[in-house]
Amino acid sequence: MSEDRCNVLLIQPQFVVGSFWNYQATCEMIGAKYPAPPLGLITIAAMLPESWDIRLVDWNTQDLDDADIAWADLVMTGGMLPQQPSTLAVIERCKAQGVPVAVGGPDVTTSPDMYAHADFRVTGEAEGVLEKLVEAWRAGERSGLFNAERFKADVTSTPVPRFDLLNFKDYTQICVQYSRGCPFTCEFCDIIEIYGRVPRTKTTQQMLAELQTLYDLGYRGNVDFVDDNLIGNKKAVKAFLPELIAWQKAHKYPFLLSTEASLNLADDPDLLEMMRDAGFFTVFIGIESPDPEILNATRKKQNTRRDIAASIHRIYEAGIFVLAGFIVGFDEEKASVAEPICGLIEEAAIPVSMAGLLFALPETQLTRRLEREGRLHPGHSLAEGDLGDQCTAGLNFDTLRPRAEILRDYRRIIDHIYSPENYVARVRRVVDMLDMSGPNGELTRPRLKKDLSDFARILWHLTVRMPEHRRPYLKLLWYCLRTNPRALNAAIVLYALFVHLGPFSRYVVSEIERQIEGVESGAWQRPKDKPTTGKPWREPSLEAAQ
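-> structure tokens emitted (546 positions)
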């Protein structure tokens, strides 16, 4: 191997199977393999020397063979906490084959000791530190620790990701990133610990170059802005959106856009109008709790200054539907929270509500406080294999409210919001409220082929392969065509997500019932080494999904 050449294998570790965000059955319906591609790794690929040969294996969409690892001079991997077991498995496989492995990403940044067995560790953001790893490799070094200075990465230097390494058909959406960081101080959130409270944004030219690259590669469909909070820097995003609108119009809207934002998005009609005109059709919002006392205590004060349901409705009036997050298990819960949370979800009409158990993530204000109070469980930063995300693996600390009470509340919430009748009823109310007079209600020529293909595949699956869905799905489509035909795409997407969420919610309920039984029988004890485990989730076949 010459000094200026290197075979680099980028490996995206598998996410845990039992996740709210997995959507495997939904992906299968439209012929995809996984919701989203590894944006971090394809960005790293663009930062490596042009003379290096690069391959990508996304272990969520394809097998990882020993021959893939044997080809490489260097393996690069890493990811988030839900990828921890798989990342560690990648490291072990590389070590067994004698191939040096470098690991980076959020989990190694917050839990570096967990990855001490890797040859190289890169903590923090890659811009400004990855070149040091490259220099060390070229100098013959085969191990090292590279720590980026916190919150200092210059995202205006980030190159266009190597979208050409992806098979677009494998994914339901392709991801881009405009900004990093969030201005708020939520106690339980690790975003501000990893990326800081001052959102840093790419330039308009950078973002349009990324979209143009996707367009030139032939991609049409959903593009997700994976920002921590798209509107964290309102001044910057308001300057960017008119240029994005102009680009979308010039290209006849080849992309439907989605993102994550804070609830104060609803306070700004001009911003909502610009997002609608740019083609944003859905946004994820962290609501967490309807109780102002809980929100204040957990430093989510921005959600206390407004009527939450009315705010969600204003977003619907801009033609954008909302996915939302809720958390159960806060210290300030004085009594049952099931009815207030279910009541808000129904009042606001939020079909897809990611209700989870509070989880103390590594290196957060919450974790530091619980550690001071002696309440953190040993092994609190370990992922629980296939058991799942916060839906089944939360409460990694001693709770103030009786644990069984919290779990019973959580079970009632999941049971209620994901009953088929309640879910579809909320979708209907969303259809009633969505103002689709903007571009999201139009069939665009660039996306027409893909939209029609997806619609046909979903229709066939839900009426032929899964006959139990035939009647409710067709009734929803007919209702939408009669009352708000331009909202048809939103109705289809929301129902398609339920094909995963319905069976997954029943798994969550059964797992939580097992945990309740363990607590009430005295079988559950404070973990000594790591959190307890239960029955892993396995996505049912489409024929079995209900």
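The CA atoms of residues 139 and 268 lie 53 Å apart.
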